[in-house]
């Protein structure tokens, strides 16, 4: 088998909306698949996002602590956020970094893009490598329903937290792993 970027697409026969929300919608589709099956699937249509591995020159990582409804607790993760309609990935990374942390991106490079669960959602998260200077600050601009605490943590501690599960978000694990495997 040769691994290619995309293979044949399914033919969507019917679609009906089950839910519409601020960040995602849920639709039910009847699809004629490339292998000849006709299936009904629920799909979470999710806005694209960025997740930021923001590093200082001395390998300190900017880490956020924020309440997350999916685990009903605070979690530690990399800064992340949704890409606004019409906004470039780089612009979203710069905006999200400043809004959530108050730091200004010096450089922004896309490492890769990931999909959290292709069997149920079309969400794509662009993993960005960002350099920051702790001395360059700007004002934070939280969304009305968000409060984030940010601090710099040594990269070695972030790696240990990923390894032992204290930092378990898919974006964080993927960004740190990608950085270690292909960039560092």
In a few lines, what is going on in this structure?
With 184 residues, the protein is an alpha+beta fold. It is built from 3 helices and 10 strands.
Task: List the defining traits of the structure above.
alpha+beta; three-stranded antiparallel beta sheet; 2 domains; Nucleoside Triphosphate Pyrophosphohydrolase; 184 residues; 10 strands; four-stranded mixed beta sheet; globular; single chain
What does this structure look like?
The structure is a single chain. With 184 residues, the chain is an alpha+beta fold. 20% of the residues lie in helices and 45% in strands. It has helices at 89-101, 155-164, 170-183, and strands at 11-20, 24-32, 38-46, 49-55, 60-68, 73-77, 80-82, 103-114, 125-137, 149-154. The protein has a four-stranded mixed β-sheet, with helices on both faces. It has a three-stranded antiparallel β-sheet with strand order 1-2-3, with no helix packed on it. It has a three-stranded antiparallel β-sheet with strand order 6-5-10. A hairpin with a 4-residue loop joins strand 5 (60-68) and strand 6. The longest helix is centred in the C-terminal third of the chain and has 14 residues, at 170-183. The model has no long low-confidence stretch (mean pLDDT 94). One of its GO terms (molecular function) is pyrophosphatase activity. Keywords: Hydrolase. Belongs to the Nudix hydrolase family.
| Proportion of residues in helical segments | 10-25%
CATH architecture of the largest domain: Alpha-Beta Complex
Taking the sheet with the most strands, its summary is: 4 strands, mixed
Number of domains: 2
How far from one another are the termini? 30 Å
Shape: globular
Spatial strand sequence of the major β-sheet: 7-4-9-8
Indicate the CATH topology of the largest domain. Answer: Nucleoside Triphosphate Pyrophosphohydrolase
Task: Output the helix-strand order.
Answer: EEEEEEEHEEEHH
- Please give the CATH class of the largest domain: Alpha Beta
Please state the CA-atom Rg, rounded to the nearest Å: 18 Å
Given as residue ranges, the uncertain stretches (5+ residues, pLDDT < 50) are none
CATH superfamily assignment of the largest domain? Nucleoside Triphosphate Pyrophosphohydrolase
Helix/strand structural class: alpha+beta
Tally the helices: what do you get?
A: 3
- Overall average pLDDT: 94
Beta content: over 45%
- Tally of DSSP β-strands: 10
């Amino acid at each position: 088998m040769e691994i290619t970027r995309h293979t044949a697409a399914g033919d969507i026969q019917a679609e009906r909306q089950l839910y519409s929300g601020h960040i995602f919608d849920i639709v039910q589709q009847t699809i004629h698949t490339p292998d000849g099956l006709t299936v009904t699937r629920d799909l979470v249509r999710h806005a694209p996002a960025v997740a930021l591995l923001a590093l200082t020159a001395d390998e300190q990582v900017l880490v956020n602590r924020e309440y997350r409804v999916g685990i009903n607790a605070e979690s530690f993760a990399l800064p992340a956020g949704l890409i606004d309609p019409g906004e470039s990935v780089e612009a979203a990374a710069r905006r999200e970094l400043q809004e959530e942390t108050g730091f200004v991106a010096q450089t922004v490079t896309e490492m890769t893009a990931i999909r959290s669960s292709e069997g149920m959602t079309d969400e794509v998260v662009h993993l960005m490598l960002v350099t920051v200077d702790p001395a360059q600050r700007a004002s934070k601009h939280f969304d009305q329903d968000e409060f984030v605490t940010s601090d710099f943590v040594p990269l070695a501690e972030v790696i240990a937290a990923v390894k032992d599960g204290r930092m378990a978000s898919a974006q964080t694990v993927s960004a740190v792993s990608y950085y270690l495997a292909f960039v560092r």
